[in-house]
Write a structure and sequence with these properties.
45% of the residues lie in helices and 18% in strands. It is of the alpha/beta class. The longest helix is centred in the C-terminal third of the chain and has 18 residues.
Length: 337
């Protein structure tokens, strides 16, 4: 393994000069050519710093902790795909992990979970729950919520942008009467998390106000499940003035809405156009295939892992909030009116 002395000999400079260049010492007065030569030689020799050697020798263990139950995860592939992406990344990078549901921590002796180098927390956690996570590790990355941004790293997606793109698409197709099916407001002590879960609804309301067509009777809210999508669409179809299109805040809800529409004798998109959100694997196989906003769940999990490991290894103190993009995927569930 190459040493600083080897690099110094090859570059024809002192050991201290090499050390200061490799440590990015901006106060060092050397020419740019010398700096580039030292860095190039270090790269050719595959030089690894002492800090990097120590980090590679340590066997890290992280916790992947979900705020929801196992049953809810199985009913919503969105969360499942995030967790599986993190686990896959851990295996690839030889990092040990424990996947847990938060309810298990509450029911078990919390001491049995201590000693984690870091935590990736998926979902929305109450303030008292966050305090329990802090007892397990000081290094925490939240996915899908962003509590106490000055203290914790977080990975979120641009829900406002995604909702806006979906609504603009429907409007361009000629739809002025657009309904909304989404999640209820969840009582929560953490303001940031509450805002996050309402971004889709808030964007919908703002957009409908812009086109002077906001009607409260077109807004239906429940849980992100196929069952609630089915039940809420059945209610919507009892309206005297049924919207020609619906923006549905999750694909599982859209799946339930499809069933309700078809059972009531309507067709998609001839009678009602539908745009979902998430782009779960099933979306493209529905009949007709679902137009939806794609959330890159694999990338969310991978990014969370990378941010956490960087914080652990570099002992970074300033928190990061990473906002990932989403993309409208146009398929067959919408038509021009």
């Amino acid at each position: 393994m190459a040493t600083i002395k080897d690099i110094a000999t090859s570059a024809g400079v002192s050991i201290s000069t090499v050390s200061r260049i490799l440590n990015l010492d901006k106060t060092l007065n050397v020419s740019e050519d010398t700096r580039k030569r030292v860095l190039s030689i270090a790269e050719e020799m595959n030089y690894v710093t002492i800090k990097e050697r120590k980090s590679k020798l340590k066997n890290f263990t992280i916790g992947i902790i979900c705020s929801f139950t196992e049953v809810k995860e199985l009913n919503d592939p969105y969360f499942l795909s995030i967790r599986m992406a993190i686990e896959k990344k851990c295996i690839k990078e030889n990092v040990d992990f424990k996947s847990l549901y938060f309810t298990k921590i509450l029911n078990d002796d919390i001491a049995s979970y201590k000693g984690l180098d870091g935590i990736i927390a998926i979902g929305i956690f109450q303030n008292n729950e966050i305090d329990k996570l802090k007892d397990l590790s000081k290094n925490i990355v939240f996915i899908d919520s962003s509590p106490e941004e000055w203290e914790f790293d977080s990975i979120v997606v641009d829900l406002k942008y995604g909702a806006r793109k979906a609504l603009e698409y429907l409007y361009r197709l000629g739809h002025n009467d657009i309904g909304y099916i989404g999640a209820k407001v969840i009582p929560h002590n953490n303001i940031d998390s509450t805002e996050l879960i309402n971004y889709r609804e808030a964007t919908y309301k703002d957009f409908m106000l812009e086109i002077n067509n906001l009607k409260e009777e077109w807004i239906f809210k429940g849980d992100f499940t196929p069952e609630d999508g089915y039940n809420l669409m059945n209610k919507a179809l009892k309206l005297k003035n049924i919207p020609s299109a619906f923006f549905i805040a999750s694909d599982p809800m859209a799946i339930g809405a499809y069933k309700a529409i078809q059972e009531n004798g309507y067709t998609i998109p001839e009678d009602i156009s539908i745009v979902g959100f998430d782009d779960i694997a099933t979306a493209q196989y529905l009949s007709p295939s679902l137009t939806t906003v794609k959330v890159f769940t694999d990338f969310m999990g991978e990014t969370a892992f990378e941010v956490l490991m960087e914080r652990i290894k570099e002992e970074r103190e300033i928190s990061k909030k990473v906002v990932l993009p989403v993309k409208l995927i146009i398929r067959d569930s919408c038509k021009i009116v």
